[in-house]
């Protein structure tokens, strides 16, 4: 049995849906085999009873049971592969027992060196943590000072307006009292005067030009907008600091950049993949491609060959002047057939550009926002354990958006160049082989 299995490649023991070794394999009436759970999940999500591989439709959901022969062969293959791998374990995982004193000394020395490396790494880690705390203290102290200064400026502006109002009212009151006095003098007792003198006296005390006081008012709410403007000014300070931090953060993340290649087997029939697997564009014409359960058949998406299940990863995509695109990550097990919503609940964490200006984080409901600078290069950062997918504009080094979630499945970078609109959106998305410095 073992010799016959050695003649078969690994693909004969892999489920085409989960791309892993069969677990409880079942065989459809058309002769194709899948994991029992994978097939049930596919039928439930697609809502159709058909073979995921050849798309043969069944009149009703067929009764499926575990293919015992295939299950036994697969289990033997699994054990054979594990036995073979155990022979090639690295020094960190497993070693043969030492044969002499020299080998013992060498193994001791290697472990002593490993202890030193771990201790040195811990020192660097502590230094990094200390620098982060010191930087955060500096940043937040600066922001608090800006906040306090902003409040002082608001108080000073309000007090100044109040002093100006006090002086104005005081001046107006004096003018009014003066006119009242002048008018009152014009009504003095003139009974003892003859008509000519009385007339002369009355007109002599009336001011030549009386002020029209009906148009004189005092604004009772002069501070409208003072506090809001102070908040806007403070937010500008915060945004400037956030931009500086984002640029520094992206610089530090460059060490996680790695190679990403497109997988043509997942590409929608309208997508053209370059020979080097680094570019994808919408062909605007359906191509003859083999049917594949991994292939998107409705949304013009393509996944990367690489899948990430741990660690930190960074890759860069040149979007140029395109008016539509989608970038991000997706679970390996996402539905790829039929109509569905692109959102985290369905295994997609993606950012989109629509109509040239509208940026959308594909949440539920969608999160729309605008950017002051249209990115020509976008960097995507995945922190698997940290549950973070972040997008950066590489032209300016600024942060665009971050998804926060918990990941349990393998994640593939995913891309869509968007549909062509005449000649406006025909350029490809281009994956850079390495992350360029900003």
UniProtKB/TrEMBL annotation:
SUPFAM superfamilies: Concanavalin A-like lectins/glucanases (SSF49899), RING/U-box (SSF57850). It comes from the Eukaryota. Pfam families: PRY, SPRY, TRIM_CC, zf-C3HC4. It is found in: Cytoplasm. The keyword Zinc applies. This is Bloodthirsty-related gene family, member 2. InterPro entries: B30.2/SPRY (IPR001870), B30.2/SPRY_sf (IPR043136), Butyrophylin_SPRY (IPR003879), ConA-like_dom_sf (IPR013320), PRY (IPR006574), SPRY_dom (IPR003877), TRIM/RBCC (IPR050143), TRIM8/14/16/25/29/45/65_CC (IPR058030). GO terms for cellular component: cytoplasm. Residues 240-434 form the B30.2/SPRY domain. It comes from Phoxinus phoxinus (Eurasian minnow). Belongs to the TRIM/RBCC family. Residues 15-55 form the RING-type domain. PANTHER family: E3 UBIQUITIN-PROTEIN LIGASE TRIM. Keywords: Cytoplasm, Metal-binding, Zinc, Zinc-finger. SMART domains: PRY (SM00589), RING (SM00184), SPRY (SM00449). One of its GO terms (molecular function) is zinc ion binding.
């Amino acid at each position: 049995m073992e010799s016959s299995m050695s003649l078969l490649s690994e693909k004969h023991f892999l489920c085409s849906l989960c791309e892993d070794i069969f677990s409880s394999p079942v065989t459809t009436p058309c002769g194709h085999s899948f994991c029992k759970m994978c097939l049930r999940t596919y039928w439930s999500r697609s809502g159709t009873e058909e073979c995921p591989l050849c798309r043969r439709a069944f009149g009703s959901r067929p009764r499926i049971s575990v293919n015992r022969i295939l299950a036994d062969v697969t289990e033997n293959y699994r054990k054979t592969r594990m036995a073979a791998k155990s022979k090639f374990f690295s020094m960190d995982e497993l070693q043969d027992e030492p044969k002499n004193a020299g080998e013992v000394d060498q193994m001791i020395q290697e472990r002593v060196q490993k202890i030193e490396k771990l201790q040195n790494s811990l020192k660097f880690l502590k230094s990094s943590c200390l620098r982060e705390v010191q930087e955060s203290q500096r940043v937040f102290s600066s922001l608090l000072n800006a906040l306090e200064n902003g409040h002082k400026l608001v108080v000073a502006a309000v007090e100044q307006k109040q002093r100006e109002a006090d002086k104005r009212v005081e001046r107006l009151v004096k003018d009014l009292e003066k006119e009242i006095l002048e008018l009152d003098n014009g009504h003095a007792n003139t009974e003892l005067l003859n008509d000519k003198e009385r007339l002369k006296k009355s007109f002599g005390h009336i001011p030549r030009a009386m002020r029209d006081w009906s148009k004189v008012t005092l604004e009772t709410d002069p501070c409208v907008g003072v506090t809001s403007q102070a908040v806007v000014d403070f937010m500008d300070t915060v945004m400037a600091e956030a931009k500086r931090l984002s640029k520094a953060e992206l610089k530090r993340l460059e060490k996680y950049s790695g190679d990403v290649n497109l997988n043509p087997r997942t590409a929608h029939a309208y997508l053209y993949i370059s020979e080097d697997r680094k570019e994808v564009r919408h062909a605007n014409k359906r191509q003859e491609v083999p049917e594949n359960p991994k292939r998107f058949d409705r949304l013009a998406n393509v996944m990367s060959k690489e899948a990430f299940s741990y660690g930190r990863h960074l890759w860069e995509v040149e979007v140029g002047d395109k008016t539509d695109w989608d970038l991000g990550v997706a679970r390996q097990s996402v539905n790829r057939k039929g109509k569905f919503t692109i959102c985290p609940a369905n295994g997609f964490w993606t950012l989109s550009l629509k109509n040239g200006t509208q940026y959308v984080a594909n949440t539920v409901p969608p999160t729309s926002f605008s950017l002051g600078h249209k990115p020509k290069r976008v960097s995507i950062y995945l922190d698997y354990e940290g549950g973070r997918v972040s997008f950066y504009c590489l032209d300016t080094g600024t942060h665009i958006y971050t998804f926060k979630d918990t990941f349990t499945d393998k994640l593939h970078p995913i891309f869509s160049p968007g549909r062509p609109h005449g000649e406006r959106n025909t350029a490809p998305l281009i994956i850079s082989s390495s992350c360029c410095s900003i």
